[in-house]
Structures are given as structure tokens and as C-alpha cells.
Design goal:
The complex is a heterodimer of chains A (608) and B (384).
Chain A (H helix, E strand, L loop, with lengths): L4 E5 L3 E7 L5 E3 L9 E2 L2 E3 L5 E3 L1 H5 L8 E2 L13 H9 L3 E4 L5 E5 L2 E4 H19 L7 E6 L5 H13 L3 E7 H10 L6 E8 L4 E9 L3 E10 L4 H20 L7 H17 L5 E12 L4 E10 H7 L1 H17 L9 E5 L6 H11 L12 H14 L6 E3 L1 E2 L2 E6 L3 E6 L3 E2 L2 E9 L7 E9 L2 E10 L11 E8 L5 E7 L5 E6 L7 H49 L3 H22 L3 H23 L3
Parallel strand pairs in A: 1-11, 11-12, 13-18, 15-19
Antiparallel strand pairs in A: 1-2, 2-3, 2-4, 5-6, 5-7, 8-9, 9-10, 13-14, 14-15, 16-17, 20-23, 21-22, 21-25, 24-27, 25-26, 27-28, 28-29
Chain B lengths: L11 H6 L3 E3 L14 H9 L6 H8 L3 H13 L4 E3 L21 H13 L5 H5 L7 H11 L16 H20 L1 H16 L12 E3 L9 E2 L22 H15 L10 H8 L34 H34 L2 H14 L4 H14 L3
Antiparallel strand pairs in B: 1-2
Helix pairs in contact in B: 3-4, 5-8, 7-8, 8-9, 10-11, 12-13, 13-14
The chains are: A alpha+beta (608), B mainly alpha (384).
The complex binds adenosine-5'-triphosphate and magnesium ion (MG).
Adenosine-5'-triphosphate binds next to α6 and α7 of chain A.
């Protein structure tokens, strides 16, 4: 069976896993040996694309062209609070796109958010392919926060498509973590998954049943609550303190901001294991008429950070309580709590979680890796008929339609197990109304999001309330929403399959796909060139090293002189080909080099 | 709807009527007090001797089962009759030859049988547990049954109409489980079971609340906030588009953005080709003439906008394709009604003639000759 890769596309870090033939989950390390790769993309001055650790390392010196936290932007409208908030804090340039969407400017080009995500996905695909040489790994399951809405999911799918992946399913991060937790064990338990990552918070309660059935009972979350918000609190505190002390606002300096961001995160992580740490940013800014250098050096203790972030932690707690309520369970009915996400290393977060669920969290899973493993497990379960595991997930948002007076009329409730469908009868609201507009809405917190709309026309002209219209909503197991409306009198019907707009047209997606593919070919080509070049250089160096020795041995004969001349020629030609980066020519000369080297070696090893 | 026709089973009966054509008898002799529902009349209008039940279902936009039921009543009332042809099972759920459905036949049979029982069985029967079952029994039964009917078990297989059936079974099982595992819901459910078993005619399920559907004017296309929503914080952020922007200004701005951000070299700005990618999903056409003439009554409502990412349904495409066929069928029907009318006049059966011409007039409302004839016959038959 063809392998399916599971990708955890995180706000801060991404991770890729597969299930190997014996059914053992395996997280794949990148070239540097790390099991997670920073979700960071940069374009260098020379136009080279960098992804992951290498992009992170140069982020201070190339802040304007280094993109991070794109997951907070994906599938969002330009004119929305989250986008405004990201715009105000990041060091790269964000602009409005042509479809009310968000574009990112790097060097001279604009990229859609999906494209940036696609670059990260491509990198994860490469990580996996390098680990399994010779295999092409196209099929993937990608995870998203459980509380993502339809547009965000669709945009993530588009990113996968742009990256050249066949995204067989999008699954929820906490659900994936639960799969990894319960995979291969026969158990009968109710578990809670508490996932606080870099950008989002999710909490899910599931029932795991023997026979490998995972049923989500309730889920809730906040797509804008994560480690970054903790970092911002620390940053703000440092900036404010600096202003009081020196009267200088660090916010105006991009480089200073980038350094502060890194320092805030670093000190936050340190404080998870020690109770006091230092922020040490010498030469943070130069100031005044004589350009005096100012330094930011400040001890920070755990208590201070906890106080700065108290409301963030309280919000997590509150969401846990409401999820328990939605699940009609009390904390004592939860058998196990699984912690996921880097932020759950913070003691105050662990304490809050332990308090709401009245139990210490399970130690069995790796908070950074479970999600990718779960995605890989789901991929295998879908394609492998031998696998009995089945995931019964829910819809995180209620679906309904908008009726007279902008009233949201719910058809499918939050936390309904999918696939599902529901039917309701409506009537006309005005006299002689011959058409109704069906506005399909998704309810998210207190806001309604339009998923799609269509018109049912040809109704008989009648007084209001006389014509009945039957509306059916259904969600299939891929999460695709279909809506169907029928005039009960004439039997006329109309339906749509809602393909939530992710902000890109189909043409744009295919254009972006083509350019991503082009990049991949180029990159693979340059990787090959690099390998061939190195090999040719090594052969040349070896030949040059032996040259004086060989010359001394054979220069006396005509034949020898001719051979030496030829060798010189080959070396010169190779050098020229390398300068021209001509792959075919280098390859050709490499063969000649090998022959020459072999001959040289033969000469020097011949007994005299 | 009066169901004097008795239950019409989707079993062997249906199979015999499957491919036969329906027609209106030349000499109608119907029960004088017979009244038909609007739906039945609509169906009757489509009966022309050239269509079978399935075609009729398609034309009327109803399910085959519904049409079968209506036809059963109409046949019994002798309003329509079958022109029997070789009976080929068409309506039965049995797979057609070479249908390429990738499901074992035994499993299909099981799905069919459960689907058929789905409406009539209560939650206990569906899960196969006793009325007094413990929560543990219910849990175990659900987890044993439900996964078998989850479409993921048959991922990327061709399931045809079985996909919907499987999903339907799964949803029902889940509903049953969720109801019976909750103390409160189970108590309520048990109470309704008790009530319906006591009363002779089962109490109709509470009608769903009827709300009004309307196209609210001035509805923003993206997100709707409750009226009391807090305004967006202003001033703290980079320049955003001003809210008071005319439709046209917005178009121009978006077009400009599309050009600016495209990495593909543009031809002269503003030409049709350079606008194409941006326009395909954006909210064009910019003019605001109502696109559907049937919206006329909705003059106050905003023009129907082309929706992003919404595909026209298969049914719609199918219907369009059918329109050509429809005209041909209509002409044939018209000819038949006129012939029936003529025959009836010759026999002195003015009632039938009047009915036939009335039908003909519906098909050709502008035809003065038919209108006149219809009126004459109605007078002769004593119909006001
Ligand atoms: N030891 C630690 N103490 C506190 N926070 C930490 C620690 N280690 C990592 N973090 C924080 O965890 C966050 C990253 O977590 P993770 O990698 O799980 O997020 P992600 O999966 O990328 O994001 P998301 O799931 O929200 O999309 C960062 O904000 C990081 O600062
Ligand atoms: Mg995560």
C-alpha cells in the first residue's frame, strides 16, 4: 500500500509522520535531525526560498522578508479583527488581496497565504521523501484546529493542492492526538484532549471504544489563543518597562521588535523549568543625538509572567468547562487527560488543566508529535482495509439559514456527529413572494459566516405563510455541506454543494500550483547539480593531488606526456563546465575524470 | 393528503409498473366527488402516455417513491392507467446490471433492508436492544453497529446511491444512541413512545416551527454580526478600506489589486483578458438588474448576486438538458389531448372533452382556437 503522510501544519512548528509497514508510527526528522520544523518561510536577498530552521536563523537580519504565523491568517477575510491584529504585530508586510483576502509581500512579489502554507507543506513532503529515498509521497492527511471554520479548512486544502499533495482528508488536531493516544490499544475510556499550541487552543472530549472506534462527544476552542499571545504579553511588558526607564519606544524599530519577540518566547520557555530567568538584549536600540546604545537587561520571574497571562489561562479553563457541559459530563467522568502543544509545558497551564478536570494529565504522549502521528494513523485507516479504526468526528459549528429579520435558524447543531442531515420547513414572509433566497450560514461564536446562497424561484403567488419550503442540510464524512430546498407545492427543487470560498479562484489555485511545481523541479535540479558538482570537484582535487607524482613517473615517455596533456584538458574543461553550471557537461566530464583518476592511481601503485 | 388508495409498497407491484407508460384513459369514468391535491394535479398534467413513473418523478422533481404513491392512488381512482409493457424491474432497489457499485451484494441487501425499516422502527429496535437496556448495552450495541455504516469504511469506493443510504443509517443510529445514552433525552423519548403506542392513530410528530425565509435587504455578503455587535476598534491599525465605498469603487480597487498582485505578466490593464482571473469569482456582474425574472415580486430585495464557489446543482444541469426533450414531449401531449377531445365530442361525452381541451389549453395558452373549443365544451358539459 502506498504510504500516506500525516502533516501537523502548526502555527509555530510543523511535523510529519508515517505509519510503517508493521503499523508503528514514526515521526520523520528533517535534515538537521529535528522532529519538528519551524513554520517559517523567508526569501533571501538573492531570491532564494528558505523554509524551517534555516529561515528562523536569519529572521533577525531579514525580518521584513521572513513570514511566520500564517496559520493565523489562513482563510480569513482582510476586513476582520484577527487580520488587523496580526498586521499590527508582525514584521512582514500584509496587504489586501483582490478577493477580500490577505496577501503577503516578500521582496517584490505578493503571495497568498495558501501559497506560504504550501511552501511549508512542500518542505514537510520533502522531509519525508528524503527519509524514504526513491519514494514519491503525494498522499497526505493534514490537521487543522478543531475550531477552524469551513473557509479555513478549504484554504488549508487549497494549500495542500498548491503543494502538489492529494489531501485525502483534513482532520482536527485534538482528534488526531486522541487517535495517537488510543491507537493499537483496546480500551473503553472517555478522554479529554487539551491542546494549547503556538496559535490556537482546542479542547475535545472523546469516547474511545474497544474495536478502535473514536467518537468525539464535544469540542470547543479559540483559533486566536496560543503561545504567541503569551509572547505578546511579555513583549508589551518589556517595551513598556523600557519606555518608562529610557523614554524610548522600541515598537518603532523592526529589528528590535524581532529580537524582543524571540527573547520573550525564550524567557517564557525557560520559565517553564526555572523560576527566574533573564532577558538579555544588549544594543537593543541606539538613541539620542549622539546615538547612545541602550541595552535591555531584565530579570523576569515566573510569577510575573503568570500574572501577565492570567486571563489567557482563564479563557482555556472556561472553554474546558463549557465543553464538559456540552458533553453532558462532569470532570469525574473523564478517565484521562491528554496534553498537546508546546504551551502545555508551562506549569500554570498544566495546573489550570489539572484543576478543571480534577486529575493529573497522562504522561504517555509527546506533545509535539502526537498530532502528526494521529494524522498518519487516520490516513492509514482510510486506505487500508485491514485497519479497523474508525473516527466519528463532529461539526464544531452550527449550520443553519438566515430568515426574515436576520435571524439565524439552526438546522444542524454544534457537536453533531457527521455524516448527518436535517430537514426543516419554512414559509414565505411576504405576500406574493415568488422567490426565496436561501442563505446558508455557519455560526461561529456569536458571528454568522455566509457559506453560500441560492435562489428558489417559481413559487406560486400567494399570501405570506402559505407556501411551504422544505430545506435539507447535510454534511458528509468529508465535511462537505450540501443544501437542498424544495417547494412542497410544485415539487420544484434547487440545491447547492457548498464549497466555501477560501479566497482564491480555481484559476489562481492552478496557477499557484504550477509555479510551486516549477520551483520544486528547479530545486530538485539544483540539488542534483550540487551533488554532481561536488563529485566533480572531488575527482578533480584527487587528480591534482596525484599529478606531480604521476608526472615524475611518466613524463619521460611520449605516451605519458600525451596522457598528462589530456588530463590537464579534462580538468580545465570540468572547471569551465562548473563555472557555467552546465549539469550535462559536468556529468560528461565527470566520467572522463573518473577514468583519468583510475589511470593515475594505476600509475602510482605500479611497482617500479 | 387523503390516502384512500391504500399503502403502495415499493415491492413487487412497483416492479411490474416499472417500465410501463402511464396514460389517461380515453373515456374517463371517475368518482364525481374525487378531488386531487395540487401535487397530484401537477403529476397528472405530465401524464401523456409516453412517460414511465421514473420519468414522471424526474419531471415533477419528486422522489420516485412519492410519485409511485401518488400514481397508486390515481390508478385506483381510475384517473390514469398503465399501458403494460414487458415488466422490467426499474424501481426496485436491486442493482442494475453493471452499476459498478463497489459493495458486496450481501451488504447491499442488508443496507436496503435496514433503510426500509429506518422510518418505522424505534430507537431501541434500530440498535437491537430491549426497552430496558442499560447504558452499557446501548453503548456496546452502537459501537458494534455504527462503524459498519460509516462511509469511511468504504473510503474512495464507488458507492452510488448507497452512500446516502449508509449515511442515513449511520445518522439514525447515532441519533438513537445519543438519545438513549442521555438520561433526560431517554425519559422524554420513552414518554413519546408510550403515547404513540396508546393512541390508535399515531400522533403526528410536532410540526417543526415555521419561520419565514426572506432575502434581507442590505445584507452584507461576508459576515453578519448581531445588531448590537461592537464596532471594530479604529485607529490602532494599518489603513483599511473605508467602509463607505461604492460598489463600483470597490470593483475598481479590487481589479487594481488583482493586477498588482498577479505574478503573471499582464497585457494592457483593463482588457478583458487581464481581468479574467479576478473576475471569475468576484462579485460581478456589477450591474444590478435582477437576474431572475421570477424575482419580480421581490422588487425591493437586492439583486441576486452570483455566488462565490457555488456550483449549480446536478439537478439544475439535468433540468436544462431536459428542457429540449420537454418541448417535444409537450407537443406530443398536446396532440393527444386534442385527439381525446375530438373522440369524446364524437361520443357525446362533453365532460371528458371539456377536461381534455382544458388540459390542452394549459399546454398552449395562447392558442385562441383551443381556448374557444374549451369554452364551448365547458358550456356543453355544464361546467361554469
Ligand atoms: N517549554 C516551554 N514552555 C512554554 N512554552 C513553550 C515551551 N516549549 C514550547 N512552547 C511554546 O509552544 C508554542 C508552540 O507549540 P506547538 O509547536 O505545539 O504549536 P503549533 O502546533 O505550531 O501551533 P498550533 O497548534 O496552535 O497551530 C510556542 O508558542 C512556544 O513558545
Ligand atoms: Mg499544534
Amino acid at each position: 500500500m502506498e504510504r500516506v503522510i500525516g502533516i501537523d501544519l502548526g502555527t509555530t512548528n510543523s511535523c510529519v509522520a508515517v505509519i510503517d509497514v508493521d503499523g508503528v508510527p514514526q515521526v520523520i526528522p528533517n535534515r538537521g535531525g529535528y522532529k519538528t520544523t519551524p513554520s517559517i518561510v523567508a526569501i533571501t536577498e538573492g531570491g532564494r526560498r528558505l523554509v524551517g530552521h534555516i529561515a528562523k536563523r536569519q529572521s533577525i537580519t531579514n525580518a521584513e522578508n521572513t513570514v511566520y504565523t500564517v496559520k493565523r491568517l489562513i482563510g480569513r477575510k482582510w476586513d476582520s479583527d484577527p487580520v488587523r491584529s496580526v498586521c499590527g504585530t508582525v514584521s512582514f508586510t500584509v496587504e489586501e488581496g483582490p478577493h477580500e483576502d490577505v496577501r503577503i509581500k516578500l521582496r517584490d512579489a505578493y503571495y497568498s497565504v495558501q501559497e506560504i502554507s504550501a511552501m511549508i507543506l512542500q518542505e514537510m513532503k520533502l522531509v519525508a521523501e528524503e527519509f524514504f529515498p526513491g519514494e514519491v509521497l503525494n498522499r497526505a492527511v493534514i490537521t487543522v484546529p478543531a475550531y477552524f471554520n469551513d473557509a479555513q479548512r478549504q484554504a488549508t486544502k487549497d494549500a495542500g493542492q498548491i503543494a502538489g499533495l492529494d489531501v485525502i482528508r483534513i482532520i482536527n488536531e485534538p482528534t488526531a492526538a486522541a487517535l495517537a493516544y488510543g491507537y493499537g490499544k483496546s480500551m473503553n475510556k472517555v478522554i479529554a484532549v487539551f491542546d494549547l499550541g503556538g496559535g490556537t487552543f482546542d479542547v475535545s472530549i472523546l469516547e474511545i471504544s474497544e474495536g478502535g472506534v473514536f467518537k468525539v462527544i464535544a469540542t470547543a476552542g479559540d483559533t486566536f489563543l496560543g503561545g504567541e499571545d503569551f509572547d505578546h504579553r511579555i513583549m508589551d511588558w518589556l517595551i513598556d518597562g523600557f519606555k518608562v526607564e529610557h523614554g524610548v519606544d522600541l515598537r518603532a524599530d523592526r529589528m528590535a521588535l524581532q529580537r524582543l519577540r524571540d527573547a520573550a518566547e525564550k524567557v517564557k520557555c525557560e520559565l517553564s523549568s526555572v523560576s527566574e530567568a533573564d532577558v538579555n538584549l544588549p544594543f537593543i536600540i541606539s538613541h539620542g543625538p549622539d546615538n547612545t546604545s541602550l541595552h535591555l537587561q531584565k530579570p523576569v520571574d515566573r510569577e510575573t509572567v503568570e500574572k501577565l497571562c492570567i486571563d489567557l489561562i482563564e479563557r482555556c479553563r472556561e472553554l474546558c468547562r463549557s465543553t464538559l457541559k456540552d458533553a453532558h459530563l462532569t470532570a469525574s467522568q473523564i478517565d484521562e487527560v491528554v496534553l498537546v502543544g508546546g504551551m502545555t509545558r508551562m506549569p500554570a497551564v498544566q495546573k489550570a488543566c489539572a484543576e478543571v478536570f480534577v486529575r493529573e494529565p497522562s504522561k504517555g504522549v509527546h506533545p509535539d508529535e502526537v498530532v502528526a502521528i494521529g494524522a498518519a494513523i487516520q490516513g492509514k485507516a482510510l486506505l487500508d482495509e485491514q485497519e479497523d479504526l474508525i473516527l466519528l468526528d463532529v461539526t464544531p459549528h452550527a449550520l443553519g439559514l438566515l430568515t426574515a429579520g436576520n435571524h439565524f435558524d439552526e438546522l444542524i447543531g454544534q457537536n453533531t456527529t457527521v455524516p448527518t442531515s436535517a430537514t426543516k420547513t419554512f414559509t414565505t414572509s411576504r405576500d406574493n413572494q415568488t422567490a426565496v433566497k436561501i442563505l446558508v450560514m455557519q455560526r461561529e461564536s456569536d458571528e454568522n459566516q455566509l457559506l453560500g446562497e441560492f435562489l428558489l424561484t417559481g413559487l406560486r403567488s400567494a399570501t405570506k405563510g402559505q407556501i411551504e419550503i422544505e430545506v435539507t442540510f447535510s454534511i458528509d464524512s468529508d465535511g462537505i455541506v450540501s443544501v437542498f430546498a424544495k417547494d412542497c407545492e410544485t415539487g420544484l427543487e434547487q440545491s447547492i454543494q457548498v464549497t466555501s470560498s477560501s479566497g482564491l479562484t480555481a484559476e489562481e489555485v492552478s496557477q499557484m500550483m504550477a509555479s510551486a511545481e516549477e520551483y520544486m523541479i528547479e530545486r530538485k535540479g539544483s540539488d542534483e547539480l550540487e551533488g554532481v558538482r561536488q563529485n566533480a570537484e572531488k575527482l578533480s582535487a584527487d587528480i591534482e593531488k596525484l599529478f606531480p607524482q604521476v608526472e615524475a613517473l611518466v613524463a619521460s615517455s611520449d605516451f605519458g606526456r600525451e596522457a598528462l596533456g589530456k588530463a590537464r584538458e579534462v580538468l580545465a574543461n570540468t572547471k569551465e563546465a562548473i563555472e557555467k553550471s552546465d549539469l550535462a557537461l559536468i556529468k560528461e566530464h565527470s566520467e572522463a575524470l573518473s577514468r583519468t583518476l583510475k589511470m593515475f592511481k594505476g600509475v602510482v601503485s605500479r611497482p617500479t | 393528503m387523503a390516502s384512500s388508495g391504500g399503502p403502495f409498497k415499493l415491492g413487487s407491484d412497483t416492479q411490474t409498473m416499472g417500465s410501463s407508460m402511464l396514460s389517461i384513459p380515453r373515456r374517463l369514468s371517475v368518482e364525481p366527488r374525487l378531488t386531487l391535491t395540487t401535487a397530484e394535479l401537477h403529476l397528472l398534467d405530465c401524464v401523456d402516455g409516453s412517460l414511465g413513473a421514473e420519468d414522471l418523478a424526474f419531471i415533477c422533481g419528486r422522489s420516485v417513491a412519492e410519485v409511485a404513491q401518488m400514481l397508486a392512488r390515481l390508478v385506483e381512482a381510475k384517473v390514469v392507467s398503465f399501458e403494460a409493457k414487458a415488466p422490467i424491474p426499474v424501481l426496485s432497489a436491486a442493482p442494475k446490471f453493471g452499476d459498478e457499485i463497489e459493495l458486496a451484494l450481501t451488504f447491499r441487501a442488508e443496507i436496503d433492508s435496514i433503510s426500509a425499516r429506518l422510518e418505522s422502527e424505534d430507537s431501541y429496535q434500530l440498535l437491537g436492544v430491549a426497552r430496558g437496556a442499560t447504558k452499557e448495552d446501548i453503548r456496546a450495541a452502537y459501537y458494534r453497529l455504527a462503524p459498519r455504516f460509516h462511509p469511511d469504511r468504504h473510503f474512495r469506493k464507488k458507492l452510488g446511491h448507497y452512500k446516502q443510504k449508509i449515511e442515513g443509517i449511520f445518522a439514525k443510529l447515532t441519533k438513537a444512541h445519543d438519545t438513549l445514552r442521555s438520561d433526560e433525552l431517554r425519559r422524554l423519548y420513552d414518554a413519546t413512545l408510550l403515547r404513540s403506542s396508546r393512541s390508535v392513530s399515531p400522533a403526528a410528530p410536532a410540526a417543526p416551527p415555521i419561520a419565514a425565509v426572506a432575502a434581507p435587504s442590505g445584507f452584507p455578503r461576508a459576515s453578519v454580526r448581531p445588531a448590537v455587535g461592537t464596532g471594530t476598534p479604529s485607529g490602532s491599525v494599518p489603513p483599511f478600506a473605508v467602509a463607505q465605498e461604492t460598489e463600483e469603487q470597490r470593483h475598481l480597487r479590487r481589479d487594481a489589486l488583482a493586477r498588482k498582485m498577479s505574478r503573471i505578466p499582464q497585457s494592457a490593464p483593463g482588457t478583458a483578458s487581464s481581468r479574467a482571473p479576478a473576475a471569475s469569482r468576484s462579485d460581478d456582474p456589477p450591474d444590478s438588474t435582477p437576474s431572475a425574472p421570477s424575482c419580480a415580486a421581490d422588487a425591493g430585495a437586492p439583486a441576486y448576486e452570483k455566488v462565490k464557489g457555488v456550483r449549480s446543482s446536478d439537478a439544475e444541469i439535468f433540468r436544462e438538458r431536459f428542457e429540449g426533450v420537454g418541448n417535444e414531449v409537450r407537443d406530443r401531449r398536446l396532440a393527444r389531448y386534442l385527439a381525446t377531445g375530438e373522440d369524446a365530442v364524437n361520443l357525446g361525452d362533453y365532460r371528458t372533452a371539456a377536461a381534455a381541451y382544458a388540459q390542452a389549453l394549459k399546454l398552449a395558452p395562447e392558442n385562441q382556437e383551443i381556448a374557444l373549443r374549451a369554452k364551448q365544451m365547458a358550456n356543453l358539459a355544464g361546467i361554469p
